[in-house]
Amino acid sequence: MTAVSRIRPGFELGLDFCVFLFLPILALASRGAAPLAVAAGLCALGLAAPRRIAAWRRVRGFAPIFAALLVWGLLSALWAVDPAHSLLIALRLTGLFAAGLALAAAAPEIAAPGRLLACLCAGLTVALALTVAQYASSGALTAPFTTRGFIEPALNRVEDGFGFVLLPLVATLLLRRQRIVAGLLAAATLAVIYVLVGDAARIAFVTGIAGAAPIYFWRRGAARAAAIASVLLILTAPLVFPPLARVEAVRDRAEAFKFSAWHRLEIWSFAGSRIAERPLLGWGLDSSRAIPGGTALTPDGHQWLPLHPHNAPLQLWLELGVPGAALFALFAARLWLALGAVAWPPLYAAAAGGSLVTGLVVALGSYGIWQEWMIGSEFLTLFLILVLARVAVSGVAAHRGGLRHRASGNPNHPMPETRRGSIS
Hints:
Layout: H1 3-28, H2 33-48, H3 53-59, H4 63-76, H5 83-106, H6 113-136, H7 156-175, H8 179-195, H9 199-217, H10 219-235, H11 237-240, H12 248-257, H13 259-277, H14 312-341, H15 346-365, H16 372-408
Helix pairs in contact: 1-2, 1-6, 1-7, 2-5, 2-16, 3-5, 4-5, 4-14, 5-16, 6-8, 6-16, 7-8, 7-9, 7-15, 7-16, 9-10, 9-15, 10-14, 12-13, 13-14, 14-15, 15-16
């Protein structure tokens, strides 16, 4: 046995442990998702590195996009509002992007995907219990470790995490004929999502469910349509989102819904005016927090731009201009086209597409695009989707093999080989 083969089980166990911790960490200390993703990426690197060229081929469609984004972000420090901060963010993103690519490359190397599925189910169960305890006790679990008072929106991040993973997880369990487990986990998770205060997370999750339907019935066509729509939305974001504050019907509806929705429209309007000043190059990587005039107050007494635009396409335009927006559009299109081409069972492909829709909707109305916990959560979710796809495929193959076995009446009927799902 070679040294590499001896340590591979340790790397895989490390990934199992990271998967188990993923959702509980979002419930208790969401910023920990970033170092968790890096730790998972190091374990993944240990699994994927011996494959060399084969591992590179699995991520060759995305690695150049991430590399180009990092290079452009580094160059933007030359004209950024705060050059030192832009350089620091570029260095952090380098580590996170490398971890994400390693996770994607290592997904087909998992020797026991069923064990990883069990770790995810256990982690989800623990996270649901922790979230309920935090909500019911006003943050008693973390109060001894923080000086900040607990507020209910602190659980929005784990609520988003539930939305990211629930559809692929339930689809996998259903395809493995574990209907009771799937039903219990789905019911418990939906109940918790309903109780929590994150309206954006609920809207994103419901939209994800709606988006899964056309993918189930018309996967390739729906994926191509989603790719085109994503590109158009990203590239036209400065023309679409900032003017919404001036549309009376939209403004009235936002004010009636909740103040934060109206404030989003004000933020987008301000971001649009600053994008117009530097549409080609932008203001520099993660310069949103230092944009001139951003700390000035609206007539309602809130900042025009608190830290970031709460809209990923607008933030790309604001900070990295045309090149940044184009790279983001290319990334989104590449994801959708890969989903349309991969050989996954229809139910699982639809669930993965629903998860992607959920993530994109969250990106349109919440958080900053460079927040490390968010990037780490997205990479861990992608890794889970790629690994669970293998479990889903094997579940379908086993069921079909069992049907053929019963039909033939041959006790020695061979089980079909399973295929590994991957996105490259």
